[in-house]
Amino acid sequence: MFRSLRFRLPALFLAGIALTGLVSTLIAFGLFRNYTQNQAKRELRREAAGLTKLYSDQALRAQEQDKPPPFFQARRLEAASGNRLFYVGLDFFSGQRSGLRRLSRRAIDFEAILQGKTLEFDFVPPGERRTFLAVAHPLYLDQTPVGALIVATPQTQLSDQVIRLLERLAIALLVGLLVTAAFAWYLSGRITRPVRKLAQAADEVAEGRYDTPVPVVAGKDEIADLADSFRQMTERLSEAEELERNFLMTVSHELRTPLTAIRGHVEALREGLADNPEGRAASLNVIAAEAGRLERLVGDVLDLAKLDTRRFTVLHEEVNMARLLERAYAVFGEEAKRRDIDYSQEVAADPVIVSDGDRVLQIITNLLANAFRWTPDGGRVDLRLSAEDGRIHVAVEDTGPGIGLDEQERIFRPFWTHDGKGTGLGLAIARELAVALGGRIELDSEVGRGSRFELVLPAQL
User: Fold this and answer.
1) Is the dihedral of CA 353, 354, 357, 360 positive or negative?
2) What is the pLDDT of residue 48?
3) Do 16 and 137 touch, CB atoms closer than 8 A?
4) 356 near 314, Cβ under 8 Å?
5) What is the DSSP letter of 105?
6) Domain 222-308, CATH 3.40.640.10 — does that match?
7) Is 190 helix (H, G, I), strand (E, B) or coil?
8) Does the structure show a pLDDT above 60 at 291?
9) What tens digit of pLDDT does each residue of 24-79 get?
10) Which of 54, 196, 220, 348 has its Cβ near the most Cβ atoms within 10 Å?
């Protein structure tokens, strides 16, 4: 369980949240502690300044009226504010009885007080074990500093505020982690559930069951894209398996037919059934034709294997395209006459290119063979040669049934045929050869309008 994606996703998510919360808490702790101390110092400064001014004013009025200094209500003030009051300086307070504690001048920088400076410091008062944060404010009589009134508050009070803040932050962080954990667990389930289903489907596909249904993932995220890609892959694998099965059946048929014809004529010659020169010549012609058919089939398979493994050698030679077109055109002349097909060629240029002439001839021958296969008797096949912008264009047009948009890519796949007949290698080899020669094959077709295959080659290979 601990190694599963379902557990690791929320665990990593929670670890990141916890780390972020810890860092935020430390930052908040530092900021709040500084803020609390600064706020406490401001309060102590304000209280010290107010008390010293109040007492100075009362002392001056008493002095003018020739009265003793006013009574300092230290205990009542400490009870009201919660702070401690101390005095450092000349001994004129009548406040000993009032609870105002006196400190030695060595407890603070008394010289700075006599210069009118306000001091901030930490100290441990006599009889105390706690540290106090204190502010000493000069006490003036006749505009002359005679001592300092010290207002102090225990540091523990500030610490208690910080601790309360930390407790609240800890509670908020814990609640946030619980809520986040529940949400992360739910979210990880939403993420990993289709992944697990895809993994199960992948295991079945790995065992050869390409018809395994692939789960449909809603949305447009990466998991949905993965599911769509995996579905396309299984469809292609299923299609490839079907193509391979059809290819094996087709090749078996294509091999068996000429072999059966060859075996029959060999047996006839062996048994003397063809006892006249004309009969023997006819049998030998059939054997030669069927052997050539076998040779072409084996050659196509070998060519495709070489192209797929990039072990194909391309020659560099000067090729007269007009003459080569004439050779390709002549191959199908008799078939055109026999089927009453309007067969024509148009040569608009006489270029000489550097390429592999035999392979260029093979490409054009394959395109013409495809055109004649699908053109009905009495139809039309055109072969055209032109040159433009340093490229050679060889177009083969037919008046066949045309090719739909959904099949215009499939027809170039090995072993795929529209009617399930033939090996489906001609166009696949033609396109791979065109790419190997630095060119391409373009297709323009529409159902019911016929097709136009155009071979585009560079003038220099």
Assistant:
1) negative
2) 85
3) no
4) yes
5) G
6) no
7) helix
8) yes
9) 777 776 776 777 778 878 888 888 888 888 888 877 777 777 777 777 777 778 77
10) 196
Has this prediction a pTM greater than 0.70?
A: no
Q: Residue 442: beta bridge partners?
A: 454
H-assigned helices in 277-425: 277-308, 321-331, 333-338, 357-374
Q: Pairing between strand 450-458 and 440-446?
A: antiparallel
From the list 226, 219, 220, the residue with the least C-alpha distance to 199 is: 226
Q: 317-458: same fold as 5-159?
A: no
**pLDDT reported for residue 385:** 93
Measured CA to CA, the distance from residue 57 to residue 80 in angstroms comes to: 21
Give me 136's structure tokens: 């000493």
Task: Look up the CATH architecture of domain 317-458.
Answer: 2-Layer Sandwich (3.30)
pLDDT digits 0-9 by tens, 160-174: 666 776 677 778 777
Alpha carbons 117 and 377: distance in angstroms, whole number = 117
- For 5-159, the fitting CATH number among 3.30.450, 3.30.750, 3.30.2010, 3.40.50 is 3.30.450
